[in-house]
Amino acid sequence: MSTGTVTVRTLQGGAAIATAVTLGHMINDAYGSMLTPLGPALHSKFGVSIAAITLLSSIFSLTSSVLQPLLGVIGERLGSRLMAAFGPVFTGLGLTLMGFMPWFGLLMLLVAVAGLGSGFFHPAGAAYVARSSPLDKRGLWASLFSAGGTAGMALGPVFASAGLQNLHWFGLIGLVIGVITYLITPDHQPTAKRLTLKAYLGIFRGPMVTLWGMAVLRSLASMGYNSMLPFIFLARGYGVREVAITLAVFAVASAAGGIVGGRVSDRIGRVPVLRSAILATLPLFALLIYSNPGQWWFYPLTFLVGAAVNASIPVGVVTAQEYAPGHVAVASSIMMGFSWGFAGLLVFLVGLLADATTPTIAALSAILLLLPSVYLAYKLPEPQAQRFS
């Protein structure tokens, strides 16, 4: 066997593949998280309304999240390699070139294309991690992949601070990572690509629907709290600084909780972690809503709640993959994009409730959605760990 062959096989080892797509996840989500902090700059440049600026986020959410199951199907038919490697490149091109668009309509199209890049990447990247991971550490590897995205969301506002006219330089990072990912990942063309669309739709049934419903309610509870947090703090005399610190602590805790939850699920099973993580969060989340940054326990409690409520996210992805082992990309997209995207479409209801009552009551009502989420978690069967095709 030649040295070149050995080198190629080494590069295509599971750890190298997982590392490459995790870096892709980080840079992809860094690009996606630039859109919100750049809102004021886009508002000033194009002279449009604030509602038009928020529409950009809705467009990105639609193409990157809500359409993700369909993009996962397309990815399985075309092969995962291009999707995993160059999905973040399209996301980067779309969002780092925003400052060069001459009119707002073209900007909307560019954001939509960027969302498609993200939507193609997530199911393909998660599938590569699932196929590359050792059977007894599948939950851990999925959680590390998830943590890469969380790290990227923290990095995005740093990129945005460079200003619209300098963003294009950050697009080169995604291009380099895309090329590396393409060279490292093997070309995966599953036999499932020959199935009909009706057969793919058949994946979304039985325990998969229950798991998805649990994830939507959990996501809506978390999104509802985060969206109400600035208004709650404002009413209590706190400002942007406290909001930023709280959300940063919550994000770091989410990554840590996901890693712990993923590893524990490898040892005791997926469903016990899904049930216990959500159930344990309920009283802690309620206490957090009625706490303030001026109290010594607030930030430790924020970390604990963030870790607990998000410990089930990568576990849910792996559970879906094990429910549909022949279609791990589509299963991943159902849990990663479709659940978050669907919850994002519903989060405005929390805002309506806040207008009718108070932000505190709206946040508490959102947290109560964890109760039916727990109920759905208790209806889930434990999936069987098996090799993915």
From TrEMBL:
PROSITE patterns, per the entry: MFS
Task: Please give the Pfam families that the UniProt record associates with this protein.
Answer: MFS_1 (PF07690)
Locate the transmembrane regions by residue number: 46-70, 82-100, 106-128, 140-160, 166-185, 197-218, 238-261, 273-290, 296-318, 330-354, 360-378
Q: Which UniProt keywords apply?
A: Membrane, Transmembrane, Transmembrane helix
- Domain Major facilitator superfamily (MFS) profile: residue ranges: 17-384
A single GO cellular-component term on record: plasma membrane
Q: Which domain of life is it from?
A: Bacteria
One Gene Ontology term of the molecular function aspect = transmembrane transporter activity
Xref: Gene3D superfamilies: MFS general substrate transporter like domains
Q: From which residue to which does any coiled coil extend?
A: none
PANTHER family documented for this protein: FOSMIDOMYCIN RESISTANCE PROTEIN (PTHR43129:SF1)
**Which named protein is this?**
MFS transporter
Which species? Deinococcus irradiatisoli
> Source organism lineage?
Bacteria, Thermotogati, Deinococcota, Deinococci, Deinococcales
